[in-house]
Design a protein that fits this description.
heterodimer; A: 400 residues; Aspartate Aminotransferase, domain 1; 7-stranded mixed β-sheet; 4-stranded antiparallel β-sheet; 12 helices; 40% helix; B: 223 residues; alpha+beta; Arc Repressor Mutant, subunit A; 2 domains; 3-stranded antiparallel β-sheet; two-stranded antiparallel sheet; 5 strands; disordered N terminus
Chain lengths: 400, 223
């Protein structure tokens, strides 16, 4: 039987059995609507309130600063569209980076093209890092929002969010620009990194349940007290009328449980995964010529390996790996709806050929030593086969 | 995985899953040719064994294809057809299938081979996901490039066919005729035409000309 080696945890994680247990009563027995004025509804409302308290406690914030949403995309959209629209009298300049998730980039693009905002897209260095100095240089008197991801979903680079946040906070105080706010998309960070918003100096933070062994269809946005947002949808008082609609009760319960487990285990899990990650990188690069590690070698998520393998195309490699029970992903154009290769790898200043040949392995709870060794053993022959079919020979000067 | 497939790829010809959701899944024939490619050019092969070559695409736009062809000078039939491709699963499979089609049953004559259409290759593959059509569009172009190369080398200049259509994007070798077909199939914006043909991806300089053509064909056929 072929093994199952799931190495696509950045795409989504399986549901943790403990999360499933916590959710189950709210999918069956406790079916009430939290807004109902009777005890069946009240039981459920109490559970939602408790989950919100729990999440707030884990992030060291107040429970009225947590908005539950349908996921990372909605949270990013609500933070950016909601804040920009509500506060545009204070200025119409926004700052973000070229390597953000599309949920941020396309919201920014929309504001730029359709609603008269001006957006600065910061360039990263070759490893995907943004520096606080770059952000500071881009700040203007009319800047109202900076949005920079905590850790990149494709290449795993961890941005210096706390330092950037600190700089923005000082700038805001010195220049007396209270409207200037800092948002971070922390979807990929929740399993491994510090989420204390105080020490990160962030005003808004996005999390997604399905990246942390919670259910799909649930996310949250932390919004610091006093920040005004314009809702994206209308029709009820739920989530302080900023996100109306009957609550995804089981999702909220699951999200709270998943975040609790993630934050409890994050240090141990990081210590466990970093050697596996580094072994995979080293194993691939020592057995294959013409590869490139994308993303920062050290400032990197403990579970992310992103390597471009020259002269071949990522989709073909993903399908060959799939046939061997290895499930990974690629920045190749052929797997994206737009037929454009990864905007993140192109933003690093690398050519199309490097983006087309990128393959991402993201480790997780289930990943073992044996899994990593199996990939290291299996991959070279598949690459050799695809290279033997390929007429392309990418010159070293383009990827080193 | 279980999936049924529609017989012929067309604008409706996406491979469908058991629940009829549009999907990525390749047919069994595609998978067979992808995992067991036929007639690819071996590393140690000698180029001088072949008497025509063809090339299309570039790795920048995601697909590059080279073909080597051996033509019988007497019968003008294709005795051997070898290829190398940089591309996704369907690019590899469609090239492999084309190599089988032009060499089976004693080989096609060059004039027969010139009439090979992307639709013929897709039919033999049992369909391709809609967004993958451009992949087999490439291999019939490489084939015609090689046919012209053979005629050029053998000085049969009267057999050269400079395609009536005009190449709009020298990188992807997309012609005005390709754009016309894309518009006829319902692609009425630049984005949709690019999804179908890949025109200008990796060569944005040609995009103004492409937009002009889309406007022209839209007006011609749809008023």
């Amino acid at each position: 039987m072929k093994p199952t080696v799931y190495l696509d945890h950045a795409a989504t994680t399986p549901l943790d059995p403990r999360v499933y247990e916590a959710m189950l009563p709210y999918l069956t027995e406790h079916f009430g609507n939290p807004s109902s004025f009777h005890s069946i509804g009240k039981t459920v409302k109490d559970a939602v309130d408790q989950a919100r308290e729990q999440v707030a406690h884990l992030l060291h914030v107040r429970s009225d600063e947590i908005l539950f949403t349908s996921g990372g995309t909605e949270s990013d959209n609500l933070a950016i569209l909601g804040y920009a629209r509500k506060n545009q009298e204070q200025g119409k300049h926004l700052i973000t980076t070229r390597i953000e998730h599309h949920a941020v980039l396309e919201a920014m693009l929309h504001l730029e093209k359709k609603e008269g905002f001006e957006v600065t897209y910061l360039e990263t260095d070759r490893d995907g890092l943004i520096s606080p100095e770059q952000v500071e240089a881009a700040l203007r008197e009319d800047t109202i929002l900076v949005s920079i991801m905590y850790a990149n979903n494709e290449i795993g680079t961890i941005e210096p969010i706390a330092v950037i946040g600190n700089m923005i906070q000082k700038w805001r105080e010195v220049r007396k620009r209270p409207a200037l706010k800092f948002h971070t998309d922390a979807c990929q960070a929740s399993e491994y990194l510090e989420l204390d918003v105080e020490s990160l100096h962030v005003d808004m933070l996005t999390l997604n349940g399905s990246k942390m062994y919670g259910p799909k269809g649930i996310g949250l946005l932390y919004v610091k007290r006093g920040i005004k947002l314009q809702p994206l949808q209308f029709g009820g008082a739920q989530e302080r009328a900023l996100r109306p609609g009957t609550e995804n009760v089981a999702g909220i319960i699951g999200m709270a449980k998943a975040l609790e487990l993630a934050q409890k285990d994050r240090e141990n899990e990081s210590i466990r995964l970093i050697p596996l990650r580094d072994r995979l990188i080293e194993g691939i690069q020592s057995s294959l010529k013409k590869t490139r590690l994308n993303g920062h070698p050290q400032q990197r998520l403990p579970n992310n390996v992103n390597i471009s393998i020259m002269d071949i195309e990522g989709e073909a490699l993903i399908l060959y790996l799939d046939a061997h029970g290895i499930y990974a992903s690629t920045g190749s154009a052929c797997t994206s709806a737009s037929l454009d290769p990864s905007h993140v790898i192109l933003a690093l200043g690398l050519p199309y050929e490097v983006a087309h040949g990128s393959v991402r392995f993201t480790l997780g709870h289930s990943t073992t030593n044996e899994d990593i060794e199996y990939v290291i053993q299996t991959l070279p022959a598949l690459v050799q086969k695809l290279r033997s079919l390929s007429p392309v020979r990418v010159d070293e000067k383009y990827f080193l | 995985m279980t999936h049924k497939q529609e017989p012929i790829a067309g604008t409706q010809g996406d491979v469908t899953t058991h629940d009829n959701a549009k999907s990525w899944f390749y047919t069994d024939v595609v998978k067979d040719h992808f995992f067991h490619p036929r007639n690819f050019m071996h590393e140690d092969a000698n180029e001088s064994d072949y008497n025509a070559i063809g090339k299309v695409g570039s790795p920048a736009c995601g697909d590059e294809l080279r073909v080597w062809m051996k033509v019988d000078p007497g019968t003008q039939r294709i005795l051997d057809f070898r290829w190398k491709t940089f591309g996704c699963g369907s690019a590899i499979a469609s090239t492999s299938m084309a190599s089988v089609m032009v060499t089976e049953n004693g080989g096609m004559t060059l004039e027969e081979a010139r009439k090979l259409k992307p639709q013929d290759i897709m039919e033999r593959l049992g369909g391709l996901p809609q967004r993958k059509f451009h992949c087999s569009v490439l291999c019939d172009k490489a084939l015609r490039d090689a046919i012209n190369d053979y005629y050029r080398r053998t000085q049969q200049f009267d057999h050269l066919v400079v395609e009536a259509s005009r190449i709009i994007d020298p990188v992807s070798k997309v012609t005005d005729h390709d754009i016309e077909e894309a518009v006829l199939e319902g692609a009425h914006t630049l984005e949709l035409v690019q999804q179908k043909t890949k025109v200008g991806i990796g060569n944005p300089n040609c995009l103004p000309a492409v937009e002009e053509l889309i406007r022209f064909y839209k007006e011609k056929y749809f008023g």
